[in-house]
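Q: Here's a chain of 621 amino acids. Please give me its 3D structure as tokens.
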Amino acid sequence: MRQVLTWSTVFLMPTVLWAAPPKKHGMLPNAIHDLGQMADTVIAEGETQTLRGGNLGIVAVKGNLTLAGQVQALTILVYPSGTLTIDDGTQLTFTDKPIDTRIDPEQWGHGLVVFGKWYAEGRPKTPYARSTIGLPAGATQITLDRDVENWNVGDRLAVPGTGQQPRRKHRRFENQSEVVTIAAINGRTVTFEPALKHDHPGIAANPFGVERFPHVANLSRSIVLRSENPDGVRAHTVVTGKATALVKNVRFAHLGRTSADKELDNTVYGDDGEPTHIGTNQIAKYPWHTHHLHGKYELTGCVVEDGLKWAVTIHGTDGGLCRNNVVYHADGAGIVTEDGTEVDNRFSGNLVIRVDGGFQQGDSRAGVTTSTNPITGRRQIDTGADGSGFWLRGPGNHFQGNFAYDAAGYGFNFNGYYRSPQSPLGKHHHVRSFKNNEAAACLGGFWATWSQSGSQLDRFERQVFEDFLAWHCSQDGVQTYHDANMTLKNFTIVGDPAVSSANQGSYFVLAARRTIGMQFGNSSYENFNLHVLNPRVSGCNVGIIVPTHPDKHSVIDSPAVSSYIGIAYHKKADPAKVPIPRAKFLPTTVQRLRESNLPAKPVDVFDEEVNGEIQLPRPTQ
């Protein structure tokens, strides 16, 4: 029987690297061992080498290897005893060559596979700054809000789309981010080319005094890992076992083979362990991937550009650091916690720009679909291909000061759909911290369904999300349902009144083709023990849609709303069930829509059941 690496060999316990494969060589799966045996370049255990340039083919690192200069390789395997160091200035290109699936049916090769230690530190560079004004189409110059380090002529800059998009039937989200090149720099003034094609406005005028302008991200780094042919066989990276990866100021370009544009298609095995089907969209091949890592990782100041599904994937890994990174142009999602078991990772200061959305774009569950696998006949769950900036299977981590722009899904998506609490991975987790995060020009700002990694709402702990800003999001600033014990504190949602007034609307459905500030009014599903404290909403067609199926402990306290409809109740909702004390209603410039079942003039409180304005009722409980 041919010895192959199978998905079932992926270790689940920290005591071994890989658990009970059919056959393995020492501590390594046979496919990895076999690739190592075929190596063109071998660094023996105890040996130290520096290689400057050249085409290295398959590299087996059992000792200490430093790479420098212009280097090409097919696969680099860093064994548990090995250390790979990538020097500043190194350009590492992975060869475009067909994968030999007879040896590697699950396609772990063609890239960088790390079981040992991986160090890379490029030249420090300020990852991003904000413009001091909105940027109109035709602009060729920007003034930054801060001094920047190591921005140079020739550096590439990403300018995010910031315009709210009108809601239309059958209209798909259109990304409007752009890449330009620095032509000159004088202090905080940067001249670039070509001229911008789109307007990149700052936040719309609002009664809360909130002011924001677009970020501009620097996509250039002094260390680069890239695929030779973005349209050919791409490389990937994976850090696993007890490895250590300390990676700073590195650019990952055109990496990742797993595609968001179609369902997963994984290799299948017969009872004899032989492959009966070779996967055509194999799972787990991403630009940056910590895979059941029981060592340490730090990813800081890096750029991940043009990922086919997910850019940064944290899977079954705890306690790592993901800080001040830039993701540009991912397809399925920007930064992902994959299965919901991940806890105590710190995501801070990361900037995600342009997530296109894959085959799940527009999915009603925001990136979770089921199907029957045509090969195995079994149920298959696909996740995270809706186009969200941060797609999070479980919340048990820290999220502070992150930004998401121009995402075809949600800026921040906490999604536990179809995650069974009875499974070995089914433990519930609550968010450790979520503060000062921001989403702009996305389909939606913040999504939460079964956010604590499962469906047993009676086991959900109180979790607090605070100081969140969503601006120019076309569908809604916040949407939650199938959730419990959630506190949303100091959330601010700002829509563009001119664009909201141009939405298509609907004659029949309250939320259809409108911009909603905070949407809790799903007609069928629950929001239990929901505490919404000090929300502020402006520039929307409807400010807040109150929970339709709450419990007696839900409350919306001290809302301030400036929208065509301030607070609305779905026709199935009982207005007396959710207390709304200290509500403040402010003037609005949002206009009535062309297709509308709403009143002829703005109203503070609207009840869909009576199709008219009502007074906020006193709660019955």
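Q: Can you summarize the key feature?
A: The chain has two helices and 60 strands.
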